[in-house]
Amino acid sequence: xxxxxxxxxxxxxxxxxxxxxxxxxxxxxxxxxxxxxxxxxxxxxxxxxxxxxxxxxxxxxxxxxxxxxxxxxxxxxxxxxxxxxxxxxxxxxxxxxxxxxxxxxxxxxxxxxxxxxxxxxxxxxxxxxxxxxxxxxxxxxxxxxxxxxxxxxxxxxxxxxxxxxxxxxxxxxxxxxxxxxxxxxxxxxxxxxxxxxxxxxxxxxxxxxxxxxxxx
Length: 216
Ligand code: GAR
Fold this sequence. Notes:
By secondary structure, the chain is an alpha/beta fold.
């Protein structure tokens, strides 16, 4: 009698945060509810020891790591993060309010496997304070974008976007809050789309070794 070894496993997500972690929670809930099929959140990494998102990840039983920059170069810091992700066989990296630019070495090692969410309709308003930039420019519509990360700041191929109207009398706080509601829906949709299209996953079709990411 032969033994069948089932190598199928869920796609392993690593989430990088720096703060509140509400998008991380939205992803965790989407995985839990099956809106991101055949996936698990394997680790949440923060570059800030006091990030509020760390406690939210722990509450959900997700492993957390704090990897601070300290006095190291960007490349050294990123190397430690990459090693932690590699040790956990991470397939897809989601930046969720990770407020640090990644080194080209890191991006190269995980090219096409790093997603970011940004609170504007990119390419408009990259960088910090995207909602404030939108108000200052007087745009009538803004929104949020999930995109692949490349070497350019808040650029890289766009996966999905959601439009949010700017209301008369909007403040940075009120506009940010309305955009955030859309972010929490958009990010899980984009992750599910990427897993299905890039990694060949869909509901009822778990990941096999053949789909695993190998570094070039
Ligand atoms: C989110 O609005 C996200 O789009 C933004 O930071 C916030 C993080 O909130 N990211 C950027 O501006 C990236 N350039 P969260 O920690 O509650 O998810």
